[in-house]
Amino acid sequence: MPLQPSKVVYVDVISNKDDFDIVIFIKGKRVKRLLKLNENGDFKRVYKILNEKYNEDEFYYYIIKKGGAKKYFYLYKLYKNCFEAEFSRKAMEYIKLFMEEYNLS
Which of 10, 18, 54, 64: CA 20 to 30 A from 36? Predict the structure, then answer.
């Protein structure tokens, strides 16, 4: 599924013990692999933020669970290419960690 950077509206990170998952929130039409974001689901805070900013009801999300160290690079690429997207504080911490590790700035 090619990801269009203009459709990404928010990126968050869920920390686990040894790893993390990337959650990408998208506006627009539904694609088979995306889950619908609603006000009663797991991401109530994100739903409120997006609903206030975009005044829409149709948001979907995708969770990236596998990938290991490649997820750091993917998160960095999202940051560099998705100009309109907001990033959570935790996502920014992981991006900064990656940038410091590889001397990117």
Answer: 18
